[in-house]
Predict the structure.
Amino acid sequence: MLGAISVHSQVSFNAKVSKKRLGINERLRIDFEMNENGDNFNPPQFTNFQVVSGPQQSVSRSWVNGVQSFSKTYTYFLTPKTKGKITIGQAEITINGEVYKTTPISVEVTEAVKKPNDPNNIDYLIDGNIHLVAEISKTNPYLNEGITVIYKLYFRNPISVSDVSELESPSYADFWSHLINIPRAEINMRGTYKGEPYNEVVWRKAVLYPQKTGKLILPPLTLNLSLNVPSNRRDLFGRSILTQAQKTITTGQNTIRVKSLPEKNKPENFSGAVGQFDFDVILDKEDLKASESFQAKIKVKGKGNLKLFNLPTISVPNTLEVYEPEHDEQVKITLSGMQGTIEDNYTIVPQFQGKYPIPPVQFSYFDPQTTSYKTLTSRDLIVDVFDGPTAGTPRTSLTGAELKQVITTDENAFRFINLDTTLSRINQEVFWMSRSFWTLLLLPIFLLLTAYLIKLFVFDKTKDASSVKQRRAQQLAKKYLSSAKKEFHDQARFYEALERALHNYLKAKLKIETTELSKSKIESLLTEKKVAQHIAREFVTVVENCEMARYAPGSSVNIQGDFEKASTLIAQIDRQL
């Protein structure tokens, strides 16, 4: 007995191949299988092979005579690159703190064969007819140069896609990013992948501006697909019967190598603008009275990283009062990048008469198309201020080494200020003795008291009744699940108790009456509550198994498996809810 227990408890980690001899145009399937759950799986290098698909992960649990068995498998599909004898190296896995390795496997690759693979094999059909790619407009841009990434799903007959869910979304940590909204994914029946016709679905569009130089990694996009695949069976009319299959597909990591902007001929006033731009300084008026204001607008228009740099500042004489600018952006982001206009609007107020020059303003940017810096200069502007105070003639007097400057002004310089005013008595009524004061004082107290009574006699009673019903349903679900466990020997009574447990669990969690529960309603309600669609579908499958076992006693059933599956689904739905 001790020897049998010791042999049973041994950990196994093995590699198996679909064939030891194959043609160079065939595919090889390799499975890495373990009998206990492990972490940190490290596959071999697959030298002289190209990985077509994988890793695909599968887990299996079973009970035989009360003994549980476990199996976990990582599957890869490979195509050989060269002929001859090729050795597949060791894979590694960590199980219970120990590192286990597989034995190297040798396969022989021969000349191409006429029938490389069984065309009716589901894995062969899926891997050869569905692809997910990330199309990158430029993989070696300059710093702050815009690039686009379009994620496309390609598939073709005989495969059709029934459902798509996003398992892993790429994050753009080292990029300024903008996702272009796609209202609805539509199928383009005339797509092309590697020169062959495919159905094409654009899944995501992103515009990226790299904010660091060097080697930047774009994380993968991973999708879970529900597929309809033809099987070997035929219906009464000779048509192939479709079977459901699940496929996890990913774009893999992509590398962007970002170049630094050249230091040669780099202008001193360069602020990081990259693209193609026009620049101008515009005045809304060039003739005005003193104490009036005018607007000076610094405007950059074009295509590039418009949101990622600062505009140059304006310089004016000291006798003009300048306020902080108001920034305005009218930028549209498309697949070609940012394009539009950004402006800084300065409000300027002159104090005295005279002609004031506005010095030219320079704006520098880097053009990635010509790989050179360009500097634009605004034109000379003059503002003519009339009909206002004039600055006096300065006189100077020396006291020791100090030079003082005295400015005299015209006696009419401040006559525009009104120094006379009319005063009137205010109302002498005491506010706290008025009716308005007491109304405003007592109104909040009345509202608080009313809200408390509503909460006490309406919401709390409803909530208490709902909580009592929910707790009662949860207790019933536990009761029936434990009752079902005791009825393993009686198929009808077991599935009757299991079905009641599942219904009462949903009644507790979704707060609905049992009469509302149908299989289609269950799946739609769980999906609305953000439960993963495949979990909701499995829940409905267990309910259907219960109905089939109750009303078709002769059908084959797996009592232990259905019970474990129900327990697992309840735990998973609990976590997601």
In short: The radius of gyration is 38 Å. Confidence is low (pLDDT under 50) at residues 4-8, 393-408. The chain has seven helices and 32 strands. The chain has four domains: 11-117, 124-258, 275-386, 467-576.
